[in-house]
Amino acid sequence: MDAIDVLRAKRDGVPLGADQIRWVIQAYTDGAVPDEQMSALLMAVFFRGMTADELAVWTQAMIDSGERKDLSSLGRPTADKHSTGGVGDKTTLPLAPLVAACGVAVPQLSGRGLGHTGGTLDKLEAIPGWRADVHEEAYLQQLRDVGAVICAAGHDLAPADKKLYALRDVTGTVESIPLIASSIMSKKIAEGADALVLDVKTGSGAFMKDPEASRELARTMVGLGEAAGVRTVALVTAMDRPLGRAAGNAVEVAESVEVLAGGGPADVVELTLALAREMLAGAGRPDVDPAEALRDGRAMDVWRRMIAAQGGDPDAPLPQPAERHVVTAPATGTLTRLDAYALGVAAWRLGAGRARKEDPVSAAAGVVWTAGVGEQVTAGQPLLELQTDDPSRIPRALAALEGAVGVDTDDVPLPLVLDRI
Ligand code: URA
């Protein structure tokens, strides 16, 4: 087979055959098809899209480039969740131990943040001693003993995606529904859970800014999950403003612990419970009430054991920033705008995120805010606190926040959960 024939066909709008797709994904993973030819094919897919049949084969080929895990030896149902990424979206942290406390094992292979969206592993690494790398044996043992693992994916999980995602990142081919859907779902299906809940974000801080595009991405991913035998549901949720009251690393761990202790911001609690109910229902436990496991401390107990199992000290003080800079409310009235993208960029510029995969992140950097959208504020009250280890980062973070806060504007906030697919 020849890569030029494959990319010419896609360029000209001719659907690819299953053999062509399987060959090109494997040959690219093995290094036999070079980046320049794959770049051309990705750009052709970007403009031409894929048929449902092409997408199913493409996704399966990405799964087959590595290993699909078998978790049947655990002897209990398994469920996982994936968020398409947002600002202040720490729900994985309380959710995994919460669902595990309800009797469903949660094998969560997570990623790191890139750009303005945070990464679960970066947040958890703010906990002194906590390690993201867990070997296969220890991973299964922790799922048996504790019921939840949040860790880095190994090299055998959809290796085609690692190469393809890095190439898409530098060729302007990230924002394509079939390429995003196949990238996410190949990894999630390969992870081996019985049920999957997708949190598809929409709004300024999300990949997909427009609700209709987010719904289409959700429908595409649910279709791929169901076709692969994974019970899959998607919630389309608001990312026009950030979630909770904190965006960063240690600050998001602190907020997650508040939720596990029965407190925390109402939107984080509501979304965590909504996702937990979907995971439990997908795993065959629709009658279990996760709110009970938050109230009676069982979820907190699993959190502590989950952190300790990966070397972390759940009682250790979290890193504190060297510098704090307060931004006050510009007027008295109802806070109607707190732009997710702007806050995400500010947290990133303060050191919470990275521009390139190899960059380090600062555990103590981030932004916290004292009021959420819809709440009353008074002119001059402290509204945002910028936290960083490096004061020279503050001016660029402030620049990102220009126009991000609005009082009594005509912005209409999205409902927290827009749709269920
Ligand atoms: N996250 C992924 O894993 N892949 C994409 O393509 C986009 C977001």
UniProtKB/TrEMBL annotation:
The keyword Disulfide bond does not apply. GO terms for molecular function: 1,4-alpha-oligoglucan phosphorylase activity; thymidine phosphorylase activity. One of its GO terms (cellular component) is cytosol. Its EC number is 2.4.2.4. Residues 334-408 form the Pyrimidine nucleoside phosphorylase C-terminal domain. The keyword Nucleus does not apply. Belongs to the thymidine/pyrimidine-nucleoside phosphorylase family. NCBIfam families: PRK05820.1, Y_phosphoryl. This is Thymidine phosphorylase. It comes from Geodermatophilus sabuli. The lineage of its organism: Bacteria, Bacillati, Actinomycetota, Actinomycetes, Geodermatophilales.
